[in-house]
Amino acid sequence: MKFGIDRLLESPELRRPLEGKRVALLAHPASVTADLTHSLDALVATGLNVSAVFGPQHGVRGDLQDNMMESPDYTDPTYGMPVFSLYGEVRRPTGQSMGTFDTILIDLQDVGCRIYTFVTTLLYVLEAAAEHGKSVWVLDRPNPAGRPAEGTTLLPGWESFVGAGPMPMRHGMTLGEMGHWFIRQFNLDVDYRVIEMEGWQPDAAPGFGWPIERPWINPSPNAANVNMARAYAGTVMLEGTTLSEGRGTTRPLELFGAPDIDAKKLIVAMYTLAPQWLAGCTLRDFWFQPTFHKHVGQLCSGVFIHAEGQAYDHAAFQPWRLQALGFKAIRKLYGDYPLWRDFPYEYVFDKLAIDVINGGPDLREWVDDPAAQPGDLDARTRPDEAAWVEARAPHLLY
């Protein structure tokens, strides 16, 4: 199969509208061609006038670990063009940076989750392009989490940098498709084009979204593999809790745990509460000791989520429900466990992080209500998921 960048590079016809134009590139470390050449180098080699580079959260170089660690602007040391950070002093492109190009190419590897901020950066670029009369091309890449959709819809008034619009946590779209949905949802008047992939099969084994012949490259420091991308729509909620999500280990966002829980008992409680929510994967209890971040230097009892191997069932796997069930089981076992972490999350200072992550308080309220059952959360969530699948349908390209 071919990614958007590869199709653009091999086709002079596709590149022709860019001739004589100033071209910007929004990219990160995973923005590479089939032979692992960085897209910036490959585009410059075609003779295109690449006049500026933009970087999303974690930067063009992907060097910054955590949330709210900002990247600076700088000058590219090889080509001398300006590199603008969209996760530094600003998160929306400024008029000054928008003046450096005519068309911006967006070549970002996403992981298929609303909270992964490249989705919001896409919206902000589209809005700025509409305002300044610029063109936006998305060089499309696979959604490694595939097509399934899961989670409650972000509520009105809960928009943030991790909540660009009324979509569920796991959206099941590519960035190219998402751009079409944004344009319709927010009534944007912008010159928009997707350089589509060729041969992407999001429902086909064994990759179910990710073509296994292509090496995985971290789009952000803690996105280490496809298992992480599959689990992320659930494990990202751990950022709003006192539980470790595995930052400071070699497998972040594929696990959860803490020094003061018993993972074996927790897994038993999860299967007792809602075994149907744990289908399609394998849970394994283990021990880990973070070298930085939450519980640094402490031995933690943990649950590892294996959305891989022979037991993996792509259609059955529900990472958002799985992680919600983990929280519910902790409430069952440990009562008033101090689960929710109160700290500023992605520049939102007046709401609990877990609520910002979920785009509303419903998930937290369900976890904290002793009378609430799994069926209650399903009743709240299933209509949102069905409505989203219907709303996205006209914009799917594959």
Helical stretch count? 12
- What percentage of the residues does DSSP assign to strands (E)? 5-15%
Give the SSE string. Answer: HHEHEEEHEHEHEHEHEEHHHH
Provide mean pLDDT, rounded.
Answer: 96
Helix content, binned percent: 25-40%
Tell me the CATH superfamily of the largest domain.
Uncharacterised protein PF07075, DUF1343
Main beta-sheet strand count, sense and barrel state: 7 strands, mixed
In CATH, the topology of the largest domain is named Rossmann fold
Q: Report low-confidence residues grouped into runs of 5 or more.
A: none
Cα radius of gyration in angstroms: 21 Å
> How many independent structural domains?
2
Order of the strands making up the biggest sheet: 3-4-2-1-5-6-7
Which structural class should the secondary elements be placed in? alpha/beta
Q: What's the number of extended β-strand segments?
A: 10
Pfam family, one: NamZ_C
Domain Peptidoglycan beta-N-acetylmuramidase NamZ N-terminal: 23-226
InterPro entries: NamZ (IPR008302), NamZ_C (IPR048503), NamZ_N (IPR048502)
Domain Peptidoglycan beta-N-acetylmuramidase NamZ C-terminal: 231-398
